[in-house]
Write a structure and sequence with these properties.
The protein is of the alpha/beta class. The mean pLDDT is about 95.
Length: about 190
């Protein structure tokens, strides 16, 4: 079974993904694929965004993030460069795999949901997600808010989602809800 895991910034996707892995699922972290694609497409990206996004020979993801999370047009330009390759790599990884969870904030926007048998949307209140982002990514309140606001709210993507899991409370409660859902999904096979 291929599971799609989506949700906005700091909604708990990594935690949920790790729980799926405990149940024997292989995980595809689309963000990590994106990091590789950034470097592979570096020449095209530098042509669009300029040399100032480089730190030595590598793309400075923090600088690039600051640009794209402040400018919708620039974000779209970056997505047009990297998303097709990211989708292609996800499809390649899926070949010959059985139980897989795809962890992708932009699962719907990238069309990856079409590869999934079941899509889970994780929900966290805006202020909680911002606080989590400030801690996890060492961002200012403004930077974390910009990242969150750059994404389409989950409520606008619900027609693509099979199940929404709330992640506004204690971590243990969230983990228990995820385990219960995974066990239920295992019974459907």
């Amino acid at each position: 079974m291929i599971i799609g895991l989506t949700g906005n910034y700091c909604s708990g996707k990594s935690i949920a993904c790790s729980i799926f892995q405990q149940y024997g699922y292989d995980a595809i972290d689309v963000d990590l694929i994106g990091h590789d694609v950034l470097e592979d497409k570096k020449r095209e990206i530098v042509e669009v965004f300029g040399e100032e996004i480089l730190k030595g020979e590598l793309i400075n993801r923090k600088k690039l993030g600051h640009i794209v999370f402040n400018d919708h047009t620039k974000r779209k330009e970056l997505e047009d460069i990297v998303h097709p390759e990211m989708v292609s790599r996800v499809k390649e990884v899926l070949k010959n795999k059985r139980d897989v969870v795809i962890n992708a904030a932009l699962l719907i926007e990238m069309g990856l949901f079409t590869l999934c048998d079941f899509v889970i949307g994780l929900e966290a209140k805006e202020e909680l997600a911002v606080k989590r982002g400030m801690v996890r990514d060492m961002l200012s309140h403004e930077e974390a808010t910009l990242r969150l606001k750059a994404q389409i709210p989950l409520k606008e993507k619900l027609h693509y989602v099979d199940k929404v899991i709330d992640n506004n409370g204690e971590k243990k409660d969230f983990e228990n809800r995820m385990r219960a859902l995974i066990q239920l999904l295992g019974q459907k096979e």
